[in-house]
Amino acid sequence: MGSLGSDPRLPPVLDFSAFRGSDQAAKAEFLQALGQACRDKGFFQLTNHGVAASLQERIFAASKEFFSLPLEEKLKAKLGPSTRGRGYETIGGQMLEPGAAPDTKEAIYLGQDLGEDDARVVKGEYGCGPNIYPSSLGREWHATCMEYLEAMKTLARDVMRALAAALDLREDFFDRFTDTDPAATLRLVHYPPTPTTSQLERGCGAHRDFGCITLLLQDAVGGLQVQDEVTGDWLDVAPVPGAYVVNLGNLMARWTNHHYTSNTHRVLNHSPCHRYSIPFFYSGNPAHTLETIPGLERTPLSLARKYGPPIPVNPYPPVSVADFLHDQFVQSYKRAEEYRPTPPELTT
Ligand SMILES: O=C(O)CCC(=O)C(=O)O
Ligand SMILES: [Fe+2]
């Protein structure tokens, strides 16, 4: 267990079988390393997570099948105000980093496939809707995505249990937030090669994730970078075959009153290859109202040192999961819509 390579600033690679197994010493060591990674970096990689390599191969194949469709086909499933957070986002459709250029990635969002007559869809609940995807892909394509989504939900629930234990909470502390209809979104992402010299171009602009946890499967191309909070350096998160990059989002940071941190990351695909990644975003039931977890009201000393006295105590009012996620999501798309490139300087 530990970091790959010698740089201790990199997210550690942790073996999840130590948490699920019966060796108590190995479990304690895992939880110690996990807690430290969540406090200091908000990032780690997870191996031996139990998700079959064959399922990972099938979801990557499904992703490539989707992105290789003609643009007109993909546009039939376009993400829009009426699609409830589902559907296809074009290259440049989102801008995660204010001040940079819109992201040079394309993506499709999928979630649990709810019918139009489902009560949550009728009520217009955040993130609840039927999936939309080009009909040329067929039911088998969709079935693979749903099988993978279920595997992610199972893993995410267990990761949340480990996160609770590493905070010295009961392992089942998060279960009531995650067991009923958790916000669980799969995103297939494609980064074409962008061997550009523009300083502002990003595959995925610098951002912190919005929700609780993200389980990211990346291919072997590389390009994901996490920012070291102390020095501001960008560190490459080297792909570990089959592993999940797990990162904590803003909702988790707020819920834990920053005892756990969310961290800034981005993607630059300067390789000559197409890059595919599959993040899974998990946040608990959208209808829940989150308050700072009892026992974590006092801001951690590390933050108090950063911001100086007075040390804020429980600075956050309660917030609903749906509102918290929705605002950040909408802003990132609005930014891209409003983007106007700076005209090249006129030379005389
Ligand atoms: O594609 C990646 O490796 C990261 C994507 C990401 O950060 C996101 O979708 O939030
Ligand atoms: Fe992210």
From TrEMBL:
Keywords: Iron, Metal-binding, Oxidoreductase
InterPro entries registered for this protein in UniProt: DIOX_N, IPNS-like_FE2OG_OXY, IPNS-like_sf, Iron_ascorbate_oxido_reductase, Oxoglu/Fe-dep_dioxygenase_dom
A Pfam family matched in the record: DIOX_N
Homology family: Belongs to the iron/ascorbate-dependent oxidoreductase family.
Source organism per UniProt: Capronia epimyces CBS 606.96
Family annotation (PANTHER family): 2-OXOGLUTARATE (2OG) AND FE(II)-DEPENDENT OXYGENASE SUPERFAMILY PROTEIN-RELATED
Molecular function GO labels: metal ion binding; oxidoreductase activity
Alphabetical GO biological process terms: small molecule biosynthetic process
Chain ranges of the Fe2OG dioxygenase domain: 182-284
PROSITE patterns reported in the protein's UniProt record: FE2OG_OXY
Highest taxon, organism lineage: Eukaryota
Protein name: Fe2OG dioxygenase domain-containing protein
